[in-house]
Amino acid sequence: MADAMDPPVFEGVVYQIYPRSFLDTSGDGIGDLAGIATQLDHLVWLGVDALWLSPIYRSPMADFGYDVADHTDVDPVFGTLADADALIAAAHERELQVWLDYVPNHTSDQHPWFQASRSSRDDPKRDWYVWRDPAPDGGPPNNWRAAFADVPAWTYDEATGQYYLHQFLPEQPDVNWANPQLREAMLDVLRFWKDRGIDGFRADVVHLIGKDPAYPDDPPEVAGVGRAGHHHLPEATAPHLRAIRRTLEAPPAAVMVGEVNLPDAAQVATYVGEDLLHLAFQFSLIHSPWRADHWRDIVRYVQGEFDAVGAWPTWVLGNHDNSRVASRVGRPGAARAAMVGLLMLRGVPFLYAGDELGLEDAVIPPDRVVDPGGRDGERAPIPWDGSARHGWAGEPWLPWPPAPEARNAAAQRADESSMLHLTRRLLALRRAETSLRTGGQEVLDVADAVLAFRRADDSGTHLVLINYLDEPLDAEVAGDWRIVVASDGAGEGGSYTGRLSPDQAVVLAEGER
Ligand code: NOJ
Fold first, then answer.
1. Which of 310, 321, 315 is closest to 282 using CA atoms?
2. Beta 50-53 vs 14-17: how paired, if at all?
3. Which of 47, 229, 358, 471 is the 20 to 30 A CA-CA neighbour of 17?
4. pTM for this one?
5. DSSP letter, residue 326
6. Active site includes 510?
7. Catalytic residue among 32, 199, 259, 433
8. Cβ(123) to ligand 1 under 6 A?
């Protein structure tokens, strides 16, 4: 059983808000900070602990905010710096933390730093980005490809006769953390927002900030794939993570979760630790089919790898880069069961706004596509009520997800059998029971199509059982157990009979009580 004594750096549940798609109050069809502020009481009612806001900085929006043009200002589509201050204060009054996206690997090509850097080879900021001479044939310095665009990861700049590196869009030049001034400027961004009250940061592709100065060609098996993941060099990134950690720990302290977007949780775990990242995403469940054997293997593996480095894992079922969990698993009952897994597993859960309503990806007609990375479906607007525009002041920038007349926050608040209420019951249980928050965890073999795990500490024991099939299953467990939460609401408060309904997940507590 994983050690129940490891103190987690953060015990709560983080709720990811994609600000463009949350709620528009200004009438331009783009969500804004004022819209988020109007829903704080709802989020307190729901029971999350922290809000992570995807980028709100000034940006030309080539990558919808992941191309930052000014780290110290809010983009006008979202509001003003004063709105950010007001939101942080209002959240804190409600004991909600506010975490901000931090984009350390690149800026916008419109950022004044890059404008200066590209202006001349002698500019003091030239070395703040990665400039290289053309290859002998005049082509790019190596064979890397950019993510989201079918182009090389290097763009030639006529004015100064060199190429600059961009592992994402050409509008997102990579910065050079090996340059001490750039590094300090990037650390200043953290200081700026910590001083404004930000409690934590989600660090975008932070594993890419340390570069191999040789910029070696990709080997043939990955050449031509714009995935960026294979360009990571842990030993080059670690010193920068240490500098970040020191900056975060200087008062007022803040935590950081790194988007270490690597396929193997063992690789991810090497970026986490005492003087490195507090937390790192591992996306195993996003990439897993809805199958008990896969989930069992993942939970065991992740637990082993994170325990080995003494770190607390994270769990993610959805975000703004991946098809929504309800679309992936297909059946609404399975999406509800998946929510039980997300919120009961040992680690820090990240809940993507809208997943608590069971939202599916929107269908995007070809003439409405706006994201170069094909991620519009999961970024569809959140429907807040059953009115024509579902609570939005303006016609939203993307189409609605399916069935907004039923899958909206107001309708589900009024319906105790809804997925929203299920999520709320799970969050309340997690708050009430230390065993489910910080307790140890052991995966049990109960039935092939069932993930079963025990969470326990000195205060008590809970069992979680998830049926991955749309048929009833026997899942006997020794002892007397009662159902505290069931994904379909059935039998809550009663004894567990040893049989799960189709798509059912249950949280069980010991005894009759
Ligand atoms: C990961 C972010 O989640 C994604 O939305 C973005 O496009 C890339 N990093 C580049 O910043």
1. 315
2. parallel
3. 229
4. 0.97
5. H
6. no
7. 259
8. no
Candidate of 52, 66, 109 to mutate for ligand 1, largest count of ligand atoms within 8 Å of Cβ:
66
CB distance 211 to 178 below 8 Å: yes
**8 A C-beta contact, residue 439 and residue 468:** no
Residue nearest to ligand 1 atom 1, measured at CA? 204
Tally Cβ neighbours within 10 Å of residue 447: 17
Is there an atom of ligand 1 within 6 Å of 174 CB? no
**Residue of 32, 174, 199, 204 marked active site:** 204
Q: Is residue 204 flagged as an active site residue?
A: yes
Task: State the distance between the two ends of the chain, measured CA to CA, in whole angstroms.
Answer: 26
66 lines ligand 1 (CB under 6 A): yes
What is the whole-number distance in angstroms between the Cα of residue 178 and the centre of ligand 1?
22
Say if ligand 1 is within 6 A of residue 96 CB. Answer: no
Give CA 396 to chain center in angstroms: 23
Angstrom distance (rounded) from CA 425 to CA 504? 15
* Pair 86, 98: CB distance under 8 Å: no
Q: Is the CB of 321 under 6 A from ligand 1?
A: yes
Q: What is the residue-level pLDDT of the chain in tens, covering all 513 positions?
A: 544 445 678 999 999 999 999 999 999 999 999 999 999 999 999 999 999 999 999 999 999 999 999 999 999 999 999 999 999 999 999 999 999 999 999 999 999 999 999 999 999 999 999 999 999 999 999 999 999 888 999 999 999 999 999 999 999 999 999 999 999 999 999 999 999 999 999 999 999 999 999 999 988 777 766 565 568 889 999 999 999 999 999 999 999 999 999 999 999 999 999 899 999 999 999 999 999 999 999 999 999 999 999 999 999 999 999 999 999 999 999 999 999 999 999 999 999 999 999 999 999 999 999 999 999 999 999 999 999 999 999 999 999 999 999 999 999 999 999 999 999 999 999 999 999 999 999 999 999 999 999 999 999 999 999 999 999 999 999 999 999 999 999 999 999 999 999 999 999 999 765
